[in-house]
Amino acid sequence: MNRMGNRKNGALLLSSIAISNLGEWVYFIALNLIVLELTHSPFAVSILYVLSPIANVIMSFWAGSWIDRLNQKKVMIFFDIFRGGCVLLLAFSSSLLVIYVVSFLIYMANAVFTPTSMAYMTKMVPETNRQRFNALKNFVQSCGFLLGPSIAGILFMIGTPEMAIKINAFALFSSATLLFFLPTMVRQCEVIEKVSFHVIKKDWARIYHFAKSVKFLTVIYMLFSGVTLLMTAIDSLEAAFATNVLGLSNSEYGFLVSIAGLGIVLGAILNTIFSKNLRLGHLMSGGAIFTAVGYLIYATSHQFTAAAIGFFLLTFAFSFANTGFLTFIQEEIPSEIMGRFISIFSVFESIGIILLTIIFGIGAQLISLQFTVIIGSILLLGISLGILYNVLKTPNNQMGI
């Protein structure tokens, strides 16, 4: 594939990601409001947050075996259209049960789409361009984080949450249209096994032996998964922390979230500009450590300014850590087994998210909200130092430190 073709395909894929990501933010906020209006119950809204990891556990057991054996471009197009149809159905439903069931189907589709897109990107983007591409991907996703809630707010002012959800359906259909123009990446082999329980069992064994043979990759992957788990658990207490510990109003909390979004965007921009000068070891270890430091500043704060500094630092730093990690796994995991590797590890990650979120919730309720967030931040720093330790001891200084 020539250089011009690479740029065109990269632009198409990034545009597809940007459109669907922006739509998802609008949809998620709108769905929260619809459920709250129907039930007037925060607990009913919280169920939406639990559905995603449960769907991940169910789908990830077998999805990787399917992903690596099919045309990944067609899989992505199918699930964009499928999710768009489900989202459109939500806009016309006033039944809480239907909303939960359809939302669960969307989360199941997400559980397949995410590793599929990762495997496809690894095949499509040349190795020399991956770090820059991942930085650009982080940038467009961070723009969604920053702009999505603002667009949702404008749509709610001029219309209804149902209208916002319809717009997300249109965004997913548009994303599928853009994916149609991308190249079909050649499969590694012509003989495609039919996915069965025996094949899935064999795939799990293959990934187990592969993970044992590349201990450095496995340790880094598990440590970074630990970072993700702790961040998710801490973030689940974010709104309560902002209002109960910091005493922020809704508008002040909204401004705090905007500062976090600014940190992501600025980090992604600098990441993109200096992608050729930043080594993966620096990105992963330094990014993870400063993310943890940002959480500690936030966790120990008692007023808005300190919390804002912590929020900005953690999102700014995580932008670098995430780019480094994505590029690292794309370089270390063979593309023909990437779907299986990511899906299998996602099973354990999702179980961890469910358990850790429950534990943190109980800790905040029975002990202290701020103490729980501080403990989570200290654990996060410990895992981040573990990433640094493993990067430093890498043979032949592979990771660039």
Major sheet description: none
Instruction: Kindly report the average pLDDT value.
Output: 86
Please count the beta strands (DSSP E, at least 2 residues each): 0
Low-confidence stretches: none
CATH architectural type of the largest domain: Up-down Bundle
Helix residue percentage: over 70%
- The figure for the number of domains is 2
| Order of helix and strand elements from N to C terminus | HHHHHHHHHHHHHH
Q: CATH superfamily of the largest domain, please?
A: MFS general substrate transporter like domains
Q: Would you write up a description of this structure?
A:
The chain is mainly α and about 400 residues long. The protein has 2 domains: about 1-180, Growth Hormone, Chain: A; about 195-395, Growth Hormone, Chain: A (Up-down Bundle), CATH 1.20.1250. It has helices spanning about 5-40, 40-65, 70-90, 95-125, 130-160, 160-180, 195-215, 215-235, 240-245, 250-275, 280-300, 305-330, 340-365, 370-390. α8 packs antiparallel against α14 (about 370-390) and α11 runs antiparallel to α14 (about 370-390). The protein is globular, with a radius of gyration of 21 Å. The chain starts with a helix and ends in a 9-residue tail after the last helix. About 45% of the residues are buried.
In brief, what are we looking at here?
Pfam families: MFS_1 (PF07690). Helices cover about 85% and strands about 0% of the residues.
Q: Which key features would you list for this structure?
A:
401 residues; mainly alpha; Growth Hormone, Chain: A; 2 domains; globular
